[in-house]
Write a structure and sequence with these properties.
With about 250 residues, the protein is an alpha/beta fold. It has 7 helices and 17 strands.
Length: about 250
């Protein structure tokens, strides 16, 4: 478990470093800072699981740091010689508040709670990713019924490469190269397919994000689909398309 120490006094950092090294073999101290500015700089470019944060620093307070980082990926344990900041610390979602000199048992409890919170966060993240992936899979496994003049087709959404406007009709291009012409206009399908990861790339096209191979910037922008088909991208829809592609791939 990675740990970062922030205290403007070297003697206090050394004391905490010795306690962590002596009693907590699972803790790896990955960095230290003696000021608010150093801490911000380090945290902007590095990762840690726990931050031990002194309240009173030479160029500000530890609480100032927490206020500027409301969305944190690490647990924070405030350290101070005074307990007057405890209420504000917990309001800013600090995990624990230790008084100097640090008691080993209290430190052990703070680390235990940090481990517990990290495990809960990781579990929550894993479940969220699983939910999103299942949602994507579920959307693409949905089926829809398409009718042309002679036939009724049951098509899985993952089979659809794109939909193209053909006057007041719509052509569905499938992965097996089939084209199905239906007697409804493209606009009727836009909202229906939006939640299943389809996006409008052009006034005449709705594309399946799962079927995009690459975005080609030439000629103002065009999509190369997995089938090799080239689909145009309208200038006014380019930003929304790229945003949808980015969000889909996350």
């Amino acid at each position: 478990m990675k740990c970062f120490l922030i205290d403007d006094e070297e003697t206090h950092r050394r004391g905490l470093r010795q306690l962590l090294t002596l009693f907590f073999s699972e803790i790896e101290i990955v960095g230290e800072a003696s000021s608010l500015s150093e801490a911000r700089e380090w945290l902007n470019y590095n990762e840690t699981d726990i931050v031990f944060l002194d309240v009173m620093l030479g160029d500000g307070t530890g609480l100032d740091l927490l206020k500027t980082m409301p969305f944190r990926s690490f647990q924070v344990v405030l350290v101070s010689a005074h307990n007057e900041f405890a209420v504000e610390a917990f309001r800013l979602s600090a995990l624990d508040y230790l008084l100097k000199p640090i008691d080993t048992d209290e430190l052990r409890e703070a680390i235990r709670r940090a481990k517990q919170q990290i495990q809960l966060s990781q579990t929550h993240l894993q479940l969220e990713i699983l939910r999103e992936n299942l949602e994507k899979l579920t959307h693409q496994n949905r089926k829809m019924v398409l009718r042309d003049a002679d036939t009724i087709y049951v098509v899985t959404l993952s089979e659809i490469v794109y939909c193209r406007a053909e006057g007041s009709y719509t052509i569905f291009k499938l992965t097996d190269e089939r084209e199905i012409l239906v007697s409804k206009n493209l606009g009727e399908y836009e909202k229906l397919l939006e939640s299943a990861h389809f996006v409008r790339s052009h006034h005449s096209y709705i594309v399946n994000l799962n079927q995009i191979k690459k975005f080609d910037k030439t000629d103002g922008g065009q999509l190369i689909m997995n089938t090799g088909t080239v689909v145009p991208v309208a200038v006014r829809r380019k930003e929304g398309l790229l945003k949808a592609m980015s969000e889909f791939l996350q």
